[in-house]
């Protein structure tokens, strides 16, 4: 198998983020006989043989069409789709979740497992039947560019998402576009339409340093490529200002971050947590990391996980509890080293929650190997275990290994699932009060979904206005996959900001001229009941006035003191000044008329 990093590039130029290239920048080829068409270039645009007729007039005006986007796979793929959606909407395209209403389908694919690729093939067939122009993005076209299903459709690689507008426009014109060249990482400040307004999926790197024998994703995402710390910190600042309440760090291997640019994951994490609001209104979730690359940083990562604004949750895939299977997978760690990761984080981080992955029936897995995996899962009783059967992916070394019988693979998968589902990880939580962060509506349409600091899912009832807020919840019941609670207190970011500003104000003093700069609130400071007591509104109350008040009180007279804040003429607006001038001129005019009438009357007499 040839290394896709070394394939001949058809051109690495590109437009600035979010801008369309002129037509000739990607080289439109004239329509030719399909059998004579060159397919050696990775980046090309040709006229598709199945689109001989001219496009309808309505499809010839760029930015007037409706796009349907379907995403398969991981959070990194979801982030890519959000970036592509953002660029399309920025250029006027509308988005729809109804495939039949769309003028073009954009399908972002996943190559991890056979089922997801099969779903892609089914969707492509459906789109062709409906005569929909198709653009296929993601890991499938990048890692398997010669698939039969990709013939006659436009394809865009994982590092070409910043050219999606151009690709869509050409596809709508009837051209077949192929942009698969590897180039610099897409910019992080591209327009973005989040699927959830409160969650930012932030890719910190692409690719990985591993070479797992079963993995097809490496063929698509390639070797490790990390964004700089400064660019990621700047993105964090931006999304917080936009109202994001959860930031998910995403990549093919978070733990490997920065090794290609001379930094590491703890350096990035410490830089990011400095930007998070101190009121815990925005939380950070660290993405999936493989054991080899965090073993040397366990204490530093544990310190970050203890931070109030970081979820005490980590996804660490083990894949098997057998060292012989891990060696065949080329996972670069042992079961003992995985246990070290889990034991250390559990010891150093209170309330630590760890999720893991298992592949059942990897080639060569014996009954003894599988029993070691079961033992590992039983020992730790992980609250989340993603169990999958082995799927041979074309072009991977594992696809050529001797397979375990299908019925044995299925039996092992069922057995491990039964073991896992017998756990009750949330027993004992009932009655506890937990702070939760509420970010989405549950699938039942009734509950809102919040997460504890350990990222345990809590289902609560309440208005959708609570989305994006933090609250204290009392756990009322526990289930196998989540817990139920009732909100007993809601934290308002606005209120906390106001309180912080009030605390920062100077104390009341005799030289304070207005209540707006006083540590007292306007109501308590300038109200009728406490006027003149909490703070001096007027610094120029004359001694004569004070003496008169004292004299009146001695005589038993009740005085209701009304304090009128003095206005500052320098702060008057144009309208205020105009009204005063108008009143003055009117008064002067009346006075002159009065004098004139008086003079006439006197002269007649």
TrEMBL record:
This is Threonylcarbamoyladenosine tRNA methylthiotransferase. It is an enzyme of class 2 (transferase). InterPro entries: Elp3/MiaA/NifB-like_rSAM, Methylthiotransferase, Methylthiotransferase_CS, Methylthiotransferase_N, Methylthiotransferase_N_sf, MiaB-like_arc_euk, rSAM, rSAM_horseshoe. Catalyzes the methylthiolation of N6-threonylcarbamoyladenosine (t(6)A), leading to the formation of 2-methylthio-N6-threonylcarbamoyladenosine (ms(2)t(6)A) at position 37 in tRNAs that read codons beginning with adenine. It catalyses: N(6)-L-threonylcarbamoyladenosine(37) in tRNA + (sulfur carrier)-SH + AH2 + 2 S-adenosyl-L-methionine = 2-methylsulfanyl-N(6)-L-threonylcarbamoyladenosine(37) in tRNA + (sulfur carrier)-H + 5'-deoxyadenosine + L-methionine + A + S-adenosyl-L-homocysteine + 2 H(+). NCBIfam families: MiaB-like-B (TIGR01578), MiaB/RimO family radical SAM methylthiotransferase (TIGR00089). Keywords: 4Fe-4S, Iron, Iron-sulfur, Membrane, Metal-binding, S-adenosyl-L-methionine, Transferase, Transmembrane, Transmembrane helix, tRNA processing. Its cofactor is [4Fe-4S] cluster. Residues 65-173 form the MTTase N-terminal domain. Belongs to the methylthiotransferase family. CDKAL1 subfamily. Residues 427-489 form the TRAM domain. It comes from Camelina sativa. Residues 32-57 are annotated as: Disordered. Residues 194-426 form the Radical SAM core domain. Residues 41-52 have a biased composition (Polar residues). The gene is LOC104712787. Its EC number is 2.8.4.5. The chain crosses the membrane at residues 583-602. SUPFAM superfamilies: Radical SAM enzymes (SSF102114). It comes from the Eukaryota.
